[in-house]
Amino acid sequence: MDRLASMQVFVQVVDSGSFAGAAKRLAASPAAVTHHVQSLEDRLGAQLLNRTTRKLSLTEVGRTFYENSARILAQVAEAEHSATLLQTTPRGLLRLNTSEGIARVVVPLIAEFTDTHPEMSFDVVLTDRMVDMVEGGFDLALRAGPLPDSTLISRKLALGKLILCAAPDYLARRGAPQRPEDLADHNCLIYHMFGNEWHFTGRAGAVAIAVSGNLRSNSLEAVRRAALSVQGVALLAAVVVAEDLQKGALVRLLPDYDANEVAVQAVYPASRRLSVKTRTFLDFLAQRMNARADAIAAGAGMTGIAA
């Protein structure tokens, strides 16, 4: 028999002063109430109640057991109440894993989110490789591009435009490419995920260009910093370089050509039920990141050198 249920019945018997009163409170039969109390006494090997025809009274063991049971049941009720609150109001710690490049976009959004949800806090761990989320204790991961096959559940947050760009000083020294084919004469900074074949679509249709350069990296942020350091031409996610373009630290190249788009995705373990805090943050991210991607796609802050 369920020990917690028997404890609840026993406490009700003591509080109501009779088996019949407890049965009424619990909407149970008197026989069922009696059975619960007898099961407790058999398990404990001690009498909990003195029974007379007129009233019930606690034995010494019964009083100690009653006090402990009442305290335990109160703690259980509080635990259930706290769990219910967590499922209705975003609160608590959310452990997030992402790359440094995506963090440039997401960390300012976390500040905005916590202004609205002050009971939330974040532990942000940056890695360029996908981690074992269950072993690492992560609630959520954010990644750009295709994901490895896994048991993770994914949700697309935004479809990001890729931008071909370079620093003004690099262009002053090497000149600006006027068409995709001109990239053969440039030092191209390559992000592993985008590969060394870059795809563009212009008025004449689609074209794939094999590129090469003196830097390859699995870090989008490393490629961005290399471009800012006047090292070469880079193909980067627009949401990552939007501020650099607005400030003029990077210049958009070939604005008449569209590069491929890349999906920014949120992933979480299939074995873990999505909590309110995680779901609320995901909805917020999707809204903000899509709005930012739309603004960038419309050309906000993107000074370009046309073909």
Word description of this protein:
The structure is a single chain. The protein is α/β, with parallel strands linked by helices. It has two domains: 3-86, Arc Repressor Mutant, subunit A; 92-305, D-Maltodextrin-Binding Protein, domain 2. The protein is built from ten helices and 15 strands. The protein has helices at 3-16, 19-26, 30-44, 60-86, 100-116, 133-136, 168-174, 220-228, 238-247, 276-297, and strands at residues 49-51, 56-58, 92-98, 120-126, 140-144, 152-166, 188-191, 197-202, 205-210, 215-217, 233-237, 251-253, 258-259, 261-269, 304-305. The strands form three sheets. Strands 3, 4, 5, 6, 7, 10, 11, 12, 14 and 15 form a ten-stranded mixed sheet that branches. The longest helix is centred in the N-terminal third of the chain and has 27 residues, at 60-86. 31% of the residues are buried.
User: In this structure, how is the largest beta sheet organized?
Assistant: 10 strands, mixed
Secondary-structure element order, N to C: HHHEEHEHEHEEHEEEEHEHEEEHE
Named CATH topology of the largest domain: D-Maltodextrin-Binding Protein, domain 2
In terms of structural class, how would the helical and strand content be classed?
A: alpha/beta
Q: Percent helix among the residues?
A: 40-55%
Determine and state the CATH class of the largest domain: Alpha Beta
Low-confidence stretches: 300-307
Q: What percent of residues are in strands?
A: 25-35%
For the record, the count of structural domains works out to 2
* CATH architecture label name of the largest domain: 3-Layer(aba) Sandwich
- What is the residue-mean pLDDT, rounded to a whole number? 85
